Amino acid sequence: MARKKPPEEHENLERWLVSYGDFITLLFATFVVLYALAQVDATDFAKLEESLKNAFSQNSLFEGQESVIEGGQGLFDQQQANSFIPGLMVEYISQKYEDDSFKEIEESVKQLRDVGELAGISSKITDKGLLLTFDDTYLFAPASAYLDSKARKLLDKVGVLICKKFVLHSMRVEGHTDSNPIHSNMYPSNWELSSARASSVVRYLISRFHFNPSLFSAIGYADTRPLEKSFSPKDPKNRRVEILIVKNRYKDEYESRANNAISLSKAEQEKIQKDRLEVITQVEHDAISPAARELLEANRRRLAARQKSEKLSKKNMQIYINLEKDSGSTDRSDIMNTDKPIIKLKSNIPEDEDFGL
Question: pTM of whole model > 0.85?
């Protein structure tokens, strides 16, 4: 008797529906974000961010993490990345804008310090944000928390650089002293002195540049946070004031619960932008020399050209790889032993950006 053939296994032809469903979900989320962006209301953005966190139970779409579709710029990164007065929502959301602004401020501080405009100030990008360090000998007299005219002018120059890029980022101002004891009626110890100095800087920046007070925190560490490169707690280099511009991804950690920046109406946002431009124009005219302003503008143009060059350079690399594949050579040793040509295209890439492969 013939054995029955086993039934053929059913081929699942509906597997594509899983990928299709994911695609439709992402497409829906994209249009929801586009709709929210069109409303230009910070309150809606905050609600949308919280809803997406709860819905997907993973890193927020707005916290700058890698996207599901890698390799492309985000929706918000493509808008006003290099404008003088950026949209408030771009600052609040875009990681690319934040990274580019940190780099621009860092390089501007270095250049102004090299030409003598910002003596005693250093800048460094850290894991938490952009750290600006002031040698307190340029800000305060010994055992004092009073800002004289020279100190205020120095803060004006740095404040302009910050205000041009950030008005919604949290800022943490820290006061530090050395371990030499202090005893006075006003400052019984270094704790009071370091706190008073941090508070003086915060108070001046808020009054001068009209920053939102809820974005600031003032902290005094006395001599408990010496510099790593310091040889002794008594080293005068430990006397300093630091301003940390906090990255957006840590805003929940540093931001005050009373911060009302995300609840601003469109009219209030427009007023902030108008006041911001007026303050920057006034302070720049008073505090920064024409030569320094020209230097800052040249630095901004150079950074913009570098970003464009990096994008074009990636395209050059891909073209070279494609040319190598089309050459038909299968002997890798022959390729390694020969001089590879320099690929030059008609583009705006400087000669030193081309690939000598």
Answer: no
Q: Are residues 245 and 177 in the same domain?
A: yes
Element (H, E) at 76: none
Asked if the structure places residue 17 within a domain, the reply is no
Residue 129 three-state SS? strand
Parallel/antiparallel/unpaired status of strands 121-125 and 240-246: unpaired
Query: Do residues 347 and 198 share a domain?
Result: no
Same domain, 176 and 268: yes
Residue 134's nearest CA partner among 97, 147, 184, 253 is 147
pLDDT number for residue 357: 33
- Residue type, position 255, single letter: E
Q: Give the angle subtended at the CA of 304 by the CAs of 302 and 308, to the nearest 5°.
A: 115
N-term to C-term CA, the chain = 72
Selection from 171, 223, 166, 176 nearest residue 197 by Cα: 176
CA distance 316 to 87: 33
Instruction: Specify whether the CB–CB gap between 123 and 130 falls below 8 A.
Output: yes
Nearest residue to 155 via CA among 126, 193, 117: 117
Q: Mean pLDDT per segment of 10 residues, for the chain of length 357 residues?
A: 68 78 91 73 61 55 42 43 53 86 92 88 93 90 91 92 90 92 90 95 94 91 83 76 92 62 70 84 76 71 70 58 52 46 44 40
Q: Please check whether residue 123 is in contact with residue 106, taking contact to mean a CB–CB distance below 8 angstroms.
A: yes
Distance CA 283, CA 69 (A): 43
Token digits of residue 35: 């709709």
Whether residues 164 and 115 fall in one domain: yes
Count of structural domains, the chain: 3
Structure tokens at 311: 């994008």
What range does the domain containing 48 cover? 25-62
